[in-house]
Amino acid sequence: MSDAHREMWERLNLDLTAHDGLLEVLGKFYGDIYMSQDNRLKGMEYMDFVLSEVHGLRIKELQEAKAQGRKVVGTFCVFVPEELTLAADAVQVGLCAGAEAGSDLAEELVPRNTCALIKSFIGFKLARLCPYLESSDLVVGETTCDGKKKAYEAFADHAPLYVMEVPQTKSVSARELWRDEVLRYMAQVEKLTGVTITAERLRTAIKTVNDRRRALQRLTALRSADPAPISGRDALLINQISFYDDPHRFTYKINELCDELELRVQAGQGVAPVGTPRLMLSGCPMAVPNWKLPYVIESSGAVIVGEESCIGTRNTRDLVDESGETVAEMVDALVDRYMKIDCACFTPNTDRQDNVASMAQTLKADGVINYSLMFCQPYAHEAMKLEHFLEGTVPTMSLETDYSMEDVEQLKTRIEAFVEMVS
Amino acid sequence: MSDAHREMWERLNLDLTAHDGLLEVLGKFYGDIYMSQDNRLKGMEYMDFVLSEVHGLRIKELQEAKAQGRKVVGTFCVFVPEELTLAADAVQVGLCAGAEAGSDLAEELVPRNTCALIKSFIGFKLARLCPYLESSDLVVGETTCDGKKKAYEAFADHAPLYVMEVPQTKSVSARELWRDEVLRYMAQVEKLTGVTITAERLRTAIKTVNDRRRALQRLTALRSADPAPISGRDALLINQISFYDDPHRFTYKINELCDELELRVQAGQGVAPVGTPRLMLSGCPMAVPNWKLPYVIESSGAVIVGEESCIGTRNTRDLVDESGETVAEMVDALVDRYMKIDCACFTPNTDRQDNVASMAQTLKADGVINYSLMFCQPYAHEAMKLEHFLEGTVPTMSLETDYSMEDVEQLKTRIEAFVEMVS
Question: Which segments does the entry list as coiled coil (chains A, B) (predicted)?
């Protein structure tokens, strides 16, 4: 890494020694999991580059934006309306939450029986390892699960935190509550940036975020081809990077990659032979560098064809209606779009069952793997329901794991058996 | 048990053999924990009787009410507004959730990492052991925690379930959502009973429930005396029975018991010598027959002087304002009262810290024991916060346990050390 990066990290008050260690492990892990793949798309070179500079060039861009007076908003959830953040001329980024860094420190703030993702974001802060968090002028939390909701209370002592209340049902009253929360966030981000969100600004922002969703939808659709034209690992990485990268550049690059994919599909080329068992992942989000399960699956003779998760189709499936003309109309369109999210925080959440089933069918999945983070109650409950719901339509298995590598062999044994079963 | 009871249980489709076993264990457990106490109040004879007939006479009363056309509403949470249930001429009862019955069956419906209370109510249903549930025409759930919120989805296949959305903050919008939910419940219970809730009916119901709260507040206040005039076990039992018993009869009996307590306090008499370490319990609810922890504490040289829990002061501290004249005014008073509940489902929930601190002071507690059910995330998080908050004011320890007896010796060791420390 360049000296300029090190100076930047020092200014951000990172723990340089620990951070060096983290980047080293990340680099090695990435090399093993990503660079070992055959038949990769040329378009993935951009992703390799972005990932190699995940704490470098992208952070430098954030610092440059800040130097120009722009603000950075950090998030942990797809409920934070990026359209409003962008309309207020701020940058929105997902925060570090996918590695075991600082988990021991985290347990001083949150209970031991907390999921790895939450322990991770607390740990990244306490161990001073996340340059995104240290660059954030505002961190927006939400009440999507008990774990995060209560962890944010402790986290608020360590970061400039703002919490949005996500309702728990999809009733008319719940929508009203969410609309109030969207408006409250709009006022908050306007206050942060000093920028008034006009119809023009909001229209542009909605288009920017929709364009990114459309590009990712295009990617999702292309994965229905057999042979699978892209690995699940690469597709996951793309979804992960969508939370960090500049949206315009990212969208351009994804469309470019999709052009390449289309040629591949036309040529009948893929990353695995025709007939390779096609699996779909469903459940909890996998934040960078949580690539364990995709790697194990794709090393077990299967290929992943879809990710039904927040870092996947849950974040890209629904567009914001673009016909609104006034700010109020556009806010209503935002509210409607975000209320469609089929997060396990809702009760009931039967839309998700239908979405998983239809995705499995469209992507011609031979099996669905329900992935839950240990101690994530909402997705653990839904995994049990999903297994019943999908019975007789597509083979399903449920796995519960965390960020440690201790269970890799155990996972491999179960996954190999499942792959054999669906073959 | 009388043959009439057995016929009733059979009509309720209980598993008679398993239920006999449950009652036998319950009786023995009660004998060991309750009948062994010295200097008990004469007023506790009523509680002994009620408990001995918990699945007998009280269920008979419910059946008689049903025979007269009244409806029974079962609940698991202090957020269900009993005032509306009573105003619609229905009976409201707490449902079985305090024993390990049927936990193995429960794990077929909910994840293993689910708290004992939730597994218990699912288990009681699947094992056909709860005559309250089998008597219920409507079961009202709520969205107070991820565990219950998602468990109700599975439970809905087994019981006539209706779910109220409890908000997660105390904002103006959150209060609006809760008001809508209270009105929706009012319509639901009116539909169930065919009774229109008039101002007159609601006024009477509010007074009934407030009177019970006032009696229990009187009991709480009398426990500030040293020596402690009543054991924690007995006080917990009283709070537990408040969820089952006829409210008028119960209130009358509690006031009678408080008269006796007052005489005791005047005479300087108690259940333990002056100077016995006084501890307060704080945290998760303890449903019948979850008496493990109070028993261990009071067998370790301490006396419990207060229960900061839903089966304790969280349910009795706040009254509904009685000055409303119209139904709308009274509904607003209900909404205000229920929004004061300092459940760990809210974020932030700093009122609870203040309430615990003030309670510890008023009751002259020498120590506070935070009690969390294993896998209860909201209260586990708050236990960590409470420990910090109370630092320097009153010694605090946090315990996590479930309904099994396996950890009794371990708990005893930790509690004895704590008692010694605060002595």
Answer: none
| Residues of chain A found within 8 Å of residue B180, distances taken between Cβ atoms | 171-173
The whole-angstrom separation of Cα A152 and Cα A142 is 8
pLDDT (mean) for B179-192: 98
Hey, where are the domains in chain A? Answer: 203-319+343-422
Interface contact flag, A347 B378, Cβ < 8 Å: no
Q: Which whole-number Å values give the CA distances from A156 to A160, B102, B348, in the listed order? A: 7, 40, 10
Tens of pLDDT, residues A72-104: 999 999 999 999 999 999 999 999 999 998 988
Measured distance CA(B73)–CA(B139) in Å, rounded: 6
Outline where DSSP puts E strands in A255-297.
278-283
Residues B395, B421 contacting (CB under 8 angstroms): yes
Closest CB from B165, B345, B374 relative to A174:
B165
To 10 degrees, the CA torsion angle through B117, A389, A416, A31? -80
Please, which pLDDT band fits residue B201 given cuts at 50, 70 and 90? very high
Report the pLDDT averaged over residues B371-382. Answer: 98
The confidence score (pLDDT) of residue A1 equals 56
Per DSSP (E only), the strands in B128-173 are 138-142, 161-164
Per the CB < 8 A criterion, the answer to whether B76 and B93 are in contact is: no
Inter-chain contacts counted by CB atoms under 8 A, chains A and B: 128
* Cβ-based contacts of A145 with chain B (< 8 Å): 146
φ, ψ for residue B362 (rounded to 5)? -60, -40
CA nearest to B82, candidates B97, B70, B72 = B72
Check residue A2 and give its pLDDT.
74
Kindly list the residues from chain A whose CB atom is less than 8 angstroms away from the CB atom of residue B114: 377
| Half-sphere exposure of residue A204: CA atoms within 13 angstroms, side-chain side | 10
- Tally of CB atoms within 10 A around A75: 23
From the candidate CATH numbers 3.40.50.11900, 3.60.15.10, 3.40.630.30, 3.20.20.210, the one assigned to the domain spanning B203-319+343-422: 3.40.50.11900
SS3 A221: helix
Q: What is the SS3 assignment for A307? A: strand
The residue among B294, B224, B221 whose CA lies nearest residue B258 is B221
C-alpha distances (whole Å) from B191 to each of B90, B141, B188, B330, B387 are 11, 17, 5, 20, 46
C-alpha to C-alpha distances, A114 to A120, A216, A264, B16, nearest whole angstrom: 10, 31, 43, 40
Task: Name the interface residues of A facing B (CB cutoff 8 Å).
Answer: 109-111, 113-114, 143, 145-147, 149-154, 163, 165, 167-169, 171-174, 176-177, 180-181, 344-345, 347-349, 374-375, 377-378, 380-385
Q: In angstroms, what separates the C-alpha of A307 from chain B's closest C-alpha?
A: 22
pLDDT above 90: percentage of residues in chain B: 97
Tell me: the pLDDT tens digits for B141-174?
999 999 999 999 999 999 999 999 999 999 999 9
Is the distance from CB of B347 to CB of B168 less than 8 angstroms?
yes
* String of DSSP letters for A91-150: EEEEPP-SS-TTHHHHTTTS-SSS-HHHHHHHHHHHTT--HHHHH-SEEEEE-SSHHHHH
Question: Which pLDDT tens digit goes with each residue over A387-396?
Answer: 999 999 999 9
Sequence-separated (6 or more) residues with CB below 8 Å from residue B375: A113, A375, A377, B113, B114, B115, B147
* CA neighbor of B285 nearest in space, from B10, B141, B97: B97
pLDDT, position B1: 56
Best probe of the B interface among A144, A145, A146, A379, by most B CBs < 10 A, is: A146
- Token pair 């457990």 is found at B29
Helices (H) and strands (E) in chain B, counts: 19, 8
